[in-house]
Design goal:
By secondary structure, this protein is an alpha/beta fold. Helix content is 27%, strand content 24%. The radius of gyration is 16 Å and the shape is globular.
């Protein structure tokens, strides 16, 4: 039986509301369990949100995979008709072989493919892009180039959502939690499930 440590359950069991962090409702707690079961069912057990690099990016790979289950891309998007869901890693890859675990897994009938890219032009036919810390200096430029495209932008560095990124995986007291910029997602015509929003800290640009 899988053991889910408190250092994962605690941060995810809180939601953002009116600028204050409150304990989640019973319904949100059920969603949290579903979230963790998605991760567990696909080979990510047990997970500890420790900040050691290997463990940290194992957790973040699990988050990256699970988040795609709660996002809807626009029906007319050319990528939606594809049988492949493309996740791009822009810049230096800190995941190592942790991404191998999610490669080939299926989300909404589409098989996940991982790409390692260095140019914005390579992202345009991707569904998700994880923008590495190595790209922080040109982050504003990258987001500006992607803002009208149905590409989910994800990162793990401070201030990402505040400048227009969509989902930020944040290290907080040796835990991995996440922030969401709903406005940025809507601007790209992406719909993030209310179930996921209940578990996130909502950031306004």
């Amino acid at each position: 039986m899988a053991f889910w440590p408190a250092n994962i359950l605690s941060p995810l069991s809180r939601v953002a509301k009116s600028g204050m962090i409150v304990r989640c409702s019973r319904r949100a707690s059920v969603v949290l369990i579903m979230f963790l079961l998605y991760v567990h069912a696909d080979g990510f057990s047990p997970l500890h949100a420790e900040t050691a690099p290997l463990r940290e990016y194992q957790v973040k790979a699990a988050f990256l995979y699970t988040i795609t289950k709660f996002v809807e891309w626009p029906a007319l998007s050319s990528s939606v008709s594809s049988q492949t869901l493309n996740i791009a890693i822009l810049g230096q890859d800190s995941f190592g072989d942790n991404l191998d675990v999610i490669k080939g897994k299926t989300v909404k009938g589409r098989s996940i493919a991982i790409r390692h890219v260095h140019q914005i032009e390579e992202i345009r036919d991707c569904d998700v892009v994880f923008i590495s810390f190595s790209e922080k200096r040109r982050l504003t430029h990258i987001l500006k180039q992607l803002q009208n495209l149905p590409v989910l932008t994800v990162a793990d560095h401070e201030g990402f959502c505040e400048v227009g990124g969509m989902i930020n995986l944040v290290n907080s007291k040796n835990r991995v939690v996440f922030e969401i910029n709903v406005t940025a997602a809507r601007r790209a015509r992406l719909t993030i499930s209310s179930q996921l929003l209940k578990l996130a800290r909502i950031v306004v640009e």
